[in-house]
Amino acid sequence: MVRITKVYTKQGDRGETSLVGGVKVPKDHPRVRAYGTVDELNSLVGLVRSTLDQIPAAEERNRVDASLASIQQWLFDLGSELATDPQSGKGTGIAIGEQQVTWLESWMDVMNRDLKPLESFVLPGGRLPLAFLHQCRTVCRRAEREIITLSREGEIAPQVVPFINRLSDTFFVLGRWLAQVCGEDEILWNPGATTPPEWK
Predict the structure, then answer these.
(1) What distance in Å separates the CA atoms of residue 64 and residue 49, rounded to the nearest whole number?
(2) Tens digit of pLDDT for each residue in 96-115?
(3) Do the Cβ atoms of 165 and 98 come closer than 8 Å?
(4) Are 24 and 85 in contact (CB under 8 A)?
(5) Which residues are CB-neighbours of 183 under 8 A, at least 6 positions away?
(6) CATH top-level class of 26-181
(7) Quick check: helix, strand or coil at residue 55?
(8) Across the strands, what pairs with 18?
(9) Is the CB of residue 143 less than 8 Å from the CB of residue 82?
(10) Region 9-20: what's the mean pLDDT?
(11) I want to staple 20 with a disulfide (CB 3.0 to 4.6 A). Which of 1, 24, 84, 123 is the partner?
(12) What is the pTM of this model?
């Protein structure tokens, strides 16, 4: 268990931070950018959960909330893994594995059974939890890009990229599924066919 007795340490005032294992790196190091973006994503998942009261179906709402709570825990696990210097030999023992990837795939398969195939891209929006899920998807894709950059110069576990890749897909499918639960029509991209209203 992590024990935090003091939030500020003044250690980072010179633009450096310490990885798990004690190695100091610049705060814009690829490893720091990767776990920092995962932390940002975790905050957005919290925003989704805080707005789930807008979902009218209680059973679905509660199951989604419990699922997102697990995802938040996994994102902290992932952040801990990414924040560890692989050369230090001081791993946390926490790792993202194949079981998390398989669970995300299974959840998407269940939700997709209720959804019609898409005929175009979905425009972000809708009620708050749906809009935040779109934002989760895009930040998750950014986290994936940061992790890929890190993988070119540092060691990462084999299931990290599959997990973050499936997670972004999960946010997209969940947003579609909740829109259906709420009875909301999806607004689809209509390439080149939109005329804005006149302003006079």
Answers:
(1) 8
(2) 889 999 999 999 999 999 88
(3) no
(4) no
(5) none
(6) mainly alpha
(7) coil
(8) 24
(9) no
(10) 66
(11) 84
(12) 0.88
